[in-house]
Amino acid sequence: MTYDSSMPISMRNETTASPANDLRALARQRLIVALDVPDAASAAALVDRLEGTCSWFKVGLELFVASGPAVLEPLLNRGHSVFLDLKLHDIPNTVAGAVRSASALGVRMMTVHAAGGPAMLAAARGALEGVTNPPELLAVTVLTSMDQPQVNAIGLSRTPAEQVELLARMGLEAGIRGFVCSPQEVANLRALTGPEGVLVVPGIRPAGADTGDQKRIATPAEALRMGANYLVVGRPITQALDPAKVAAAILDEMAAVL
């Protein structure tokens, strides 16, 4: 199979696993459910309810701090793909060590904060050299909760879009080709990275859903049309009365675009 970065990570090594025209299966490999829950028991209950519907799950700071690396084992044992979203941001040596440790956990993607600077990004990328089947290293650009007033409040005069581009260029120069950005910057980053870029997009809200603390958002269909590889969806699914039903509706919307 010819390598294609637009193909979901979990499908790159498959040759005949799914029919080429199975758009629902393709959508399933591009939807990541955020397990933003307080403990391992809550995560397990949610995964049970989504079993057979979703195959990618994001473990972030809240769950990882509460339960540690052990929370990943049940997900991996079930054959799910894991996105470890810790947004590492520290001195280069510390981040490099954390990246090496995380790469041994069996996760498929992980994040560092692009705001850590060129040396930190280069150290993170270098930490994966020689690792067998390394996770995709993603540089987080600007959080989807940050709008113009929030960006100005931390002393930046740029627009969020300008800051995203600056950080993405920095990441590319450090050898990183995967980025986390809001839906509003996907098209520009796709033009910047080309087809090789892996763009993971949170801030996804189906039409009519509560936006919560997210500022720069889009529907699943809009984000895919603009060039997203993966969509991260949390509360619209995890806080629904029937998470599997909401996830299935999102998958249908994604499949219609794909």
Task: Describe the structure in your own words.
This protein has helices spanning 23-28, 40-50, 61-67, 72-77, 92-103, 118-126, 148-153, 160-173, 186-193, 220-225, 235-238, 243-257; strands spanning 31-34, 56-60, 81-88, 109-113, 136-140, 178-180, 198-201, 230-233. The chain is of the alpha/beta class and 258 residues long. It has one domain (22-257): TIM Barrel, CATH 3.20.20.70. Strands 1-2-3-4-5-6-7-8 form an eight-stranded parallel β-barrel, surrounded by five helices. α5 runs parallel beside α6 (118-126) and α8 runs parallel beside α9. The protein starts with 22 loop residues before the first helix and ends with a helix. Residues 1-6 and 10-18 have low confidence and may be disordered.
Could you list some keywords that capture this structure?
single chain, alpha/beta, TIM Barrel, 15% strand, 12 helices, disordered N terminus, eight-stranded parallel β-barrel, globular, 258 residues
